[in-house]
Amino acid sequence: MAIPATQMRPGMIIKHNGELHAVFSVEHRTPGNLRAFIQAKLRNLRSGAMFEHRFRSPDPIERVIVDEIPMEFLYNDGDDYYFMNTENFEQTHLKRDTLGDAVEYLTANLQITVSFFDGVAVGIELPQTVELTVVETEPGLKSATASSVTKPATLETGLVVQVPPFINEGEKIRVDTAEGAYLSRA
Prior knowledge:
The structure is a single chain. With 186 residues, the protein is an all-beta fold. The chain has one helix spanning 96-99, and strands spanning 2-4, 13-16, 19-29, 37-44, 50-56, 60-63, 67-77, 80-85, 91-95, 111-117, 120-125, 129-137, 151-155, 160-163, 172-176, 181-185. A six-stranded antiparallel beta sheet has the order 1-6-2-3-4-5, with no helix packed on it.
């Protein structure tokens, strides 16, 4: 099934140059007077090699049909991440290198979709947004309002995002999983 490059998301499985690749990160860039393009970080599922590729916005991307099974993230143990099938309660574990940047959004009991190709788990698809708790940031300013000023905040998963100055430690925020950006308070 062909989709435009602009609809590519982290966690998708695509066919590129005749081989299966997992999409790890996607960045839509629009440099000055030039045409917009999509900079994607891909991992070859056969060899495990990581590389970046630049797609033009209208380029058709062949999304591979995989078995998508709804699962719930349970916990991680080092580089192993454990998921439970919500239909039959079977557990599956995936390695950190299979998950890529998606590990920065995984919290206990998060409902996700795990993709299987030929019976082997090849990646996950995250929800559009996740709610994460701020564990470290600079103190908030009194009477701070939303503006173009931001500060870095470390979230419970280790992800660092730029947040407005009124966000304090311990607050839950909503983060966009495609961009890795702050959206709002939860």
